[in-house]
Specification:
By secondary structure, the protein is α/β, with parallel strands linked by helices. It is 45% helix and 20% strand. It is built from 5 helices and 5 strands, in the order E-H-E-H-E-H-E-H-E-H. Helix 3 links the parallel strand 3 and strand 4.
């Protein structure tokens, strides 16, 4: 039997985090959740997920800084950043150079989420 694929979802909006987790679990994936960048880095190291969906704006450590730390730990990490705001161009350019898969904008549709996960897990 195949091992289930793990998706790490990171967002400080608990309702959005739980709703997204429900959708991803319904699609047959295991889900790990974190509410800030520090938790994201820790949970990445603990679970070695197949894909990370991470909000950019969060308390304690933002999504870009968490991506940079995850990338230092695993340069092959598959990370997609999610934002409702304009990009920090300097950080975004650096992240793209370090294999950031993509950035998707909020609000996103269920179809967009399913598409990005199925292409990258």
């Amino acid at each position: 039997m195949d091992k289930k694929k793990i998706v790490l979802i990171v967002d400080d909006d608990v309702d959005l985090l739980e709703n997204t987790a429900f959708l991803i679990k319904s699609a047959g994936y295991d889900v790990v959740m974190a509410q800030n960048g520090v938790e994201a880095v820790q949970k990445y190291k603990e679970t070695n997920p197949n894909l990370v969906l991470m909000d950019v704006r969060m308390p304690i450590m933002d999504g870009y800084d968490a991506f940079f730390k995850i990338n230092q730990y695993d340069s092959n990490a598959k990370v997609i950043l999610i934002t409702a705001y304009a990009h920090d161009e300097k950080k975004h350019t650096k992240a793209k150079s370090l294999n950031l898969i993509d950035t998707i904008s909020k609000p996103y549709t269920i179809e967009q989420l399913e598409d990005v996960i199925s292409k990258n897990v």
